């Protein structure tokens, strides 16, 4: 996504794309997720099993279904339970990137469509070690985690509510 549809994830708008402190980089290996065809011919019910089996979280007592935005002192790993099969969608963004800004309303509406999933957002320029760890060289970048393990990356350049919902459904079956 290094074309005209993403911003560099460095600490400022002037940071060169793809330079995120490359020494000793631990990078998560993720499967490339291709867009699903609009119509699948001769498909049967349940033709494709979901890739990630998410444990549905208990939503009793939750009144506001909105993404949680991590501040600079919060660590993503504190929010991801490695001993759980809960699924969390994490948005890496920067406040100055217009593509992050245009994605925000769609990402913000996802918790209402998928209340049993968790949604987190973090400023990639304030969490550069996480950006490096998970291979975020451009924003916006969305990763699906199961527990604390990254399972899939949203790779569409067409970032609409519909493509985001399709991605979640194709990965989780939810």
From TrEMBL:
Thioredoxin domain ranges (all copies): 30-173
Residues covered by region (Disordered): 1-51
GO cellular component: cilium
Composition skew (Low complexity), residue ranges: 8-18
Coiled coil, from the record: none
Biological process (GO), any one: cilium assembly
Origin superkingdom: Eukaryota
Protein's name in the database: Thioredoxin domain-containing protein 15
Classification of source organism: Eukaryota, Metazoa, Chordata, Craniata, Vertebrata
Gene coding for it: Txndc15
């Amino acid at each position: 996504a290094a074309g005209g549809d993403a911003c560099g994830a460095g600490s400022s708008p002037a940071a060169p794309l793809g330079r995120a402190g490359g020494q000793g980089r631990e990078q998560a290996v993720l499967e490339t997720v291709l867009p699903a065809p609009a119509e699948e011919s001769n498909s049967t019910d349940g033709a494709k099993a979901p890739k990630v089996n998410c444990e549905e979280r208990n939503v009793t007592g939750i009144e506001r279904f909105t993404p949680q935005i991590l501040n600079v002192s919060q660590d993503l790993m504190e929010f991801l339970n490695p001993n759980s099969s809960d699924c969390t969608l994490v948005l890496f963004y920067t406040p100055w990137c217009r593509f992050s800004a245009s994605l925000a309303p769609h990402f913000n509406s996802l918790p209402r469509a998928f209340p049993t999933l968790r949604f987190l957002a973090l400023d990639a320029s304030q969490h550069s070690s996480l950006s490096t760890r998970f291979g975020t060289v451009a924003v916006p970048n969305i990763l699906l985690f199961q527990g604390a393990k990254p399972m899939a990356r949203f790779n569409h350049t067409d970032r609409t509510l519909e493509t985001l919902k399709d991605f979640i459904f194709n990965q989780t079956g939810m």
